[in-house]
Design brief:
single chain, 3-stranded mixed beta sheet, 12 strands, about 20% strand
């Protein structure tokens, strides 16, 4: 299951965001370090195609794909050396697939800021620096060991030392270990040693409800500018944790009316999850069975053979072919039988590159 860590300074809206995502009721008090152990919640990935597919197929058992969010306690300046339980909190980040860095982009005297006032650039740089410093400590230790072996002529150690030298250069330049990666082998090695700045990162700008939709908000522009200095392709998603918390308490028409009144087309939480999918290069395919309609998550460019293995090893081991149709075509047809009669089903082999929104029916024999 995809695992996303919510990080940031204390009291910037992390737990409020987590509560809205999961409706889990995690502590979200107005003081630093109210979260010590990480809260964990599993969230269904919003996808209206799945509901429409289930309706077309007359299925009531609908199983969405899910992601796991981890609400990690606020980091402070000095976290990399243990300040504010920093070592413990940084260890929690090592277990996630990607980070959602929440940055406060609003001023409110009633909500305490751990550093006195709201400053998106400073707040971003504090967290970015602490992650880099923690990685530097790890890299320096590994590089020292690799250098000793490299001097003896060990080829693997020489390659390791060269990679770690590149990583140190990127970290010292204010970027991350991800910028030192030149091959899949580099990525595997750096992931194995648990570097934090190797992980993909999405920035979530927590703005005042009144500023939703204001792309020219100075605090938002400031965050975008500073984030892209450190991470050129950084995506910044603006949301209001307070607004999302209120929205999470509503259902049906009341929810739609609340969104409409705020001039918002889609909940920020939905946009956040979809942005995480883009960040990690993921896509969705569907299956329609006799008892359920289900969504599945796979990396972009996965083959039909890969998708079969996502469901069950037997599907992959005995793979014959995949009968394929796009979800919108299936919705119009209403069933495999109708789709087959209309000539909409395609028969694809194991190397077929699955497309986002494909409905797959696997033929296999074991």
């Amino acid at each position: 299951m995809l695992r996303l860590g919510i990080i940031g300074l204390p009291n910037v809206g992390k737990s409020t965001l987590f509560n809205a995502l999961t409706k889990a009721g995690a502590a979200a008090s107005n003081y630093p370090f109210c979260t010590v152990e990480p809260n964990v919640g599993v969230v269904p990935v919003p996808d209206d195609r799945l509901d429409r597919l289930a309706a077309a197929a007359s299925q009531t058992n609908v199983i969405p794909t899910t992601v796991e969010f981890v609400d990690i306690a606020g980091l402070v300046e000095g976290a990399s050396t243990g300040e504010g339980l920093g070592n413990q909190f940084l260890s929690h980040i090592r277990t996630v697939d990607a980070m959602v860095h929440v940055v406060r982009c609003f001023a409110d005297p009633d909500v305490v800021h751990v550093m006195g006032d709201s400053d998106p650039e400073r707040d971003h740089d504090v967290i970015t620096s602490e992650l880099a410093l923690a990685d530097l400590a790890t890299v320096e230790r590994r590089k020292e060991k690799a250098a000793k072996l490299a001097r003896s002529g060990d080829k693997d150690a020489q390659r390791e030392e060269a990679l770690l030298t590149r990583v140190m250069a990127e970290l010292n330049a204010g970027r991350g270990a991800r910028d030192a990666v030149q091959s899949p082998d580099d990525h595997r090695y750096l992931r194995q040693i648990g570097l934090l700045t190797l992980k993909p990162i999405l920035y979530a700008a927590n703005v005042d409800e009144a500023d939703l939709g204001n792309d020219a908000l100075p605090a938002l522009l400031e965050l975008r500018a500073t984030a892209q200095v450190h991470h050129e392709d950084a995506e910044i998603l603006a949301f209001s944790a307070k607004f999302e918390a209120e929205l999470a308490e509503l259902n049906g028409e009341a929810r739609d009316e609340f969104l409409h009144a705020a001039g918002v087309a889609e909940p920020g939480l939905d946009r956040l999850i979809h942005a995480c999918y883009r960040l990690l290069g993921l896509e969705t395919f569907f299956t329609v069975g006799d008892r359920e309609v289900r969504a599945w998550t796979i990396p972009v460019e996965s083959t039909a053979f890969d998708a079969a293995g996502e469901i069950h090893s037997d599907f992959q081991r005995g793979f014959i072919r995949a009968e394929t149709i796009h979800v919108e075509e299936f919705i119009q047809a209403g069933s495999y039988r109708a789709a087959r009669e209309r000539g909409l089903l395609r028969s694809e082999g194991r190397d077929y590159p699955v497309q986002d929104g494909d409905v797959l029916l696997f033929r296999f024999n074991v």
